[in-house]
Amino acid sequence: MPKASEERHGHDSLEKVLSVMVDQMRIQQEQMQMQAQALQEQMQVHLQLQQEQQTQLQAQQEQMKELIITLASKQGAVQDASKDQYDQLSKEVQRFVSDEETGNTFAYWYGRYGPIIRDAQLPDHKKRDLILMKQDEEAYRKYADEVLPAQPHDLDFDTTIANLQKLFASKKTLIRRRNECLRIACPPLTPTCVPFREYANTIKRMDEDARLKELDYTAMKTLQFVAGLQDPSLREVRLRMIRRLDAHRDEAPLTIEDLVAECENFTALKMNNTDMEGTRDIHAVWKKKEVTCFTCGGPHFRRDCPQSDNTGRKKRRKTGAQFGRRRQCKHVVAFDTESARTYLDVVVRGCNLKLQLDTGADITLISRRAWKRMGSPALEPCVMPVETASGTSMKIYGKFSTDFSIRDRVTGKMLHGNGTCYVTEGSNLLGLEWCIQLPAYKKLKGNFYCRKVTSEEKIRAEVVADLKKKYGEVFNSDLGKCTKSKGINRDIKDSARRCRAGQEAAKMPTKTVRHSWKMEQKPWNRLHIDYAGPLNGKMYLVVVDTYSQWPEVFEMPSSSTTAILRELKSLFARFGDLQVIVSDNGTQFTAKEFQNFCEERGIKHMRSPPFHPQSNGQAERTTFACRAALRTSDKDTTVAAE
């Protein structure tokens, strides 16, 4: 009984344990289901967030793509605009050519084009490259040598400007500029030149360059003191004072008393140095010859002796004119050598040149200007010295080998050859080395070849008989019996007129033989140019063509060379270039700028002789006609209206 109850009790305990375990397992299962459901919900949330992030990322990528496309298009537009602006500046900015004589310094050039370069929407390295590109060949080479070992394109924009302003600045000191400013004079007034406006502009420009507005009363006195030391004995003192003024940088200005003390101190030191040397300079000594009278022994000439009886030969006294020095004028006869010279049209490396034919020159010479027009080909050093006809040495910059073409003046064909060309300062000569390659020269040399001469009597008799047969009048027996030659008086006059001794001893100088202008065969080949006026306060530029007598009249606001070149460029743009321009010796036509204009266009500039306006008569007659027409138009309103 007790055993059965124990078994029943154990069975009940087991059932309770099992039921508890079942309950726990059910609870764990429910918890696991809840956790699984929570995990599933979290995964759904994560998936939804991931999808949203992916959508946002795609939207951002689209926005980035659109932004990149927009920026690329804007950058391309900016680059195109920058390139267009650079090209426009390259066309507008003129090339810089350094010329200190005319005041064309880099500061003047940069003052003109600097504002448009600085205001351009370009990076600094582009501005630097533009300025370096606008330097001419000589200026760029000089600047490149100056900045070595650095390269010009390695320096920044500001450093490049500072270096160029320092290198191509005026070498005149401030004292010299002020002295030149005080010594300026107005050009003479001529019928073709009214200089007052140009004179005033020159004064204003030189005053600014000399900084005269910075001068006070004390500085003006010191400048006047130094400028007055003009005697040759004061040369060293003047040089020392100029150095003192140029080197003075103190705040306290120099006074005239300081300069006086400096001059006296320098003179005392110089005298002390001379005394310490112990020697004296020996200059030329002139002593008057003692005079003794042969009659009385007194200190006078015999002709002035009071004891002279004046008998015998008649006493002759020389007049004051006979005692004076003999003065006479040697007459010089000028000849037109330009017409005797021969020029040939030569093409060298695509450049048309006019070279003077000179068979006495062994080599061919061209000027530096012509060499630059060819593109400045590479030069080889000239080892052998080159001398002129007088024996003086000639400066040669170098030589180069080239092909050339010469136009035959008869047939018009181009003759080709090759040779060596030497570069000098200003000569253009066609030498013997190139001449011997011309067929005409070879033919000339062959025709004058000296052949063998024989003296056999048989051949001599045949030649004499042949000459008598062809030229019988020369061997006429009556020939030579006449006592008068035809035209002998004219020949004697011509011979006497060409006699040098007779020309020097003549009372009046022999006039140069006048030559008429060559008749032109086509229009617009030679122009005569002159000024007309002033008429009613205005000047007129008159240009007339020799062949067609076609006149062109321009009203000129200024009589400067620049104004003339502006009108000539407009005229040549309508009718084309020509060969010869004839003018007088006015300052507008003799200026360097006018000569450069003619050389660049291949125009020969001829000037009439001084004080002989008849040589430019074509322009003078047209000028008179224009004056009469203008006066008539002022008086007659109907003519003016027409």
User: What is the CATH architecture descriptor of one domain?
Assistant: 2-Layer Sandwich
Main β-sheet description: 6 strands, mixed
Query: What is the CA-CA span between the terminal residues?
Result: 167 Å
CATH-wise, what's the superfamily of one domain? Ribonuclease H-like superfamily/Ribonuclease H
- Beta content comes to 5-15%
Oligomer: single chain
How many individual β-strands?
A: 11
> CATH topology of one domain, anyone?
Nucleotidyltransferase, domain 5
Structural class: alpha/beta
Portion of residues in helices?
Answer: 40-55%
Number of distinct helices: 22
In round numbers, the mean pLDDT is 76
Give the C-alpha Rg. 49 Å
Low-pLDDT sequence parts: 311-316, 318-337, 637-642
Largest beta sheet: what is the strand line-up? 3-5-4-1-2-6
The backbone outline, from C-alpha atoms, is elongated
CATH top level class name of one domain:
Alpha Beta
InterPro entries: DUF7083, Integrase_cat-core, Peptidase_A2_cat, Peptidase_aspartic_dom_sf, Retrovirus_Pol_polyprotein, RNaseH-like_sf, RNaseH_sf
GO molecular function: aspartic-type endopeptidase activity; endonuclease activity; nucleic acid binding; nucleotidyltransferase activity
Organism: Cylicocyclus nassatus
Protein name: Integrase catalytic domain-containing protein
How would you describe the overall organization of this protein?
With 642 residues, the chain is an alpha/beta fold. Helix content is 48%, strand content 11%. The chain has 22 helices and eleven strands. A six-stranded mixed sheet has the order 3-5-4-1-2-6. The chain has a five-stranded mixed sheet with strand order 9-8-7-10-11, sandwiched between helices. Strand 1 and strand 2 form a beta hairpin. The longest helix is centred in the N-terminal third of the chain and has 91 residues, at 2-92. It is elongated.
